[in-house]
Specification:
By secondary structure, this protein is α+β, with helices and mostly antiparallel strands. Helix content is 43%, strand content 15%. The protein is built from nine helices and five strands. A five-stranded mixed β-sheet has the order 1-2-3-4-5, sandwiched between helices. Helix 1 packs antiparallel against helix 3 and helix 1 packs across helix 9.
């Protein structure tokens, strides 16, 4: 076996392995069962662009290529030629899509009301977030379609000599995007946004049941340094 063939085989193996791992952990972050995570991993492997790997490793005549193809395969099973999801502030008309994303997992299905019509509390909360200078409700979009959402809250504090911190909340990714690196793109965007706001800490919480989500966040540099607690309050109404 030639060196070129060996290198090509290794590139295919690495791309498939990376795509499968990312897809499996992204699916776990969304609360899918073991079978669902396995199917997501298999699907990601199937979407690996083998032609792009060959193009990146060989020229038209089969000789080693000097440069990588513009559509080289990415670890998440997509290619560099595929547009990265755009992330922007949410608009009022995005609310139905956002609430549908919040409801689209085992935990959210029990506590959200995607409608129609939407419960009035969603609009009231959206308007409160819009008015708050240190809260940002965000959506990830592919074209005109909302494929993900998260909320960023920026909090000043006296600890750590007056450090600001950013809290990432309510991260959701559409089912069709869960093995394409969209979650990673969103979290990396949030970290960059926190830096731009002068934050020294980025923090988030994740339900204890989402073990694979914990691994996903750890891969992005987060450390499980604290034990989070909450107290459900009685309905004020």
């Amino acid at each position: 076996m030639s060196a070129t063939t060996t290198a090509l085989a290794a590139a295919v193996r690495d791309a498939c392995a990376s795509a499968a791992v990312d897809a499996y952990e992204d699916a776990g972050m969304q609360g899918l069962c073991a079978e669902g995570r396995f199917e997501a991993a298999v699907g990601a492997i199937e979407r690996v662009d083998l032609a792009a790997i060959v193009a990146a490793r060989t020229g038209a005549d089969g000789a080693p290529a000097r440069t990588e193809s513009a559509t080289r395969p990415m670890a998440n099973g997509t290619s560099a030629g595929e547009a990265t999801p755009a992330i922007r502030r949410a608009l009022r008309e995005d609310l139905p899509a956002i609430v549908a994303l919040l409801a689209d997992d085992m935990l959210g299905a029990r506590r959200e009301r995607p409608g129609p019509p939407l419960a009035s509390g969603y609009l009231a909360a959206f308007e409160a977030i819009e008015r708050a200078p240190n809260c940002e409700l965000l959506v990830a979009c592919r074209g005109a379609q909302v494929i993900g959402t998260m909320q960023l809250d920026f909090t000043p504090g006296l600890s750590r000599q007056g450090a600001w911190r950013a809290t990432i909340e309510a991260v959701r990714v559409a089912a069709g995007e869960r093995s394409r690196g969209t979650g990673r793109t969103m979290i990396e965007w949030a970290i960059a946004r926190a830096r731009s706001r002068g934050c020294r800490i980025v923090q988030l919480g994740s339900d204890r049941s989402r073990v694979h989500a914990h691994r996903f966040y750890e891969r992005l540099g987060f450390v499980a340094s604290h034990l989070g607690m909450k107290l459900e309050l009685a309905d004020a109404g």
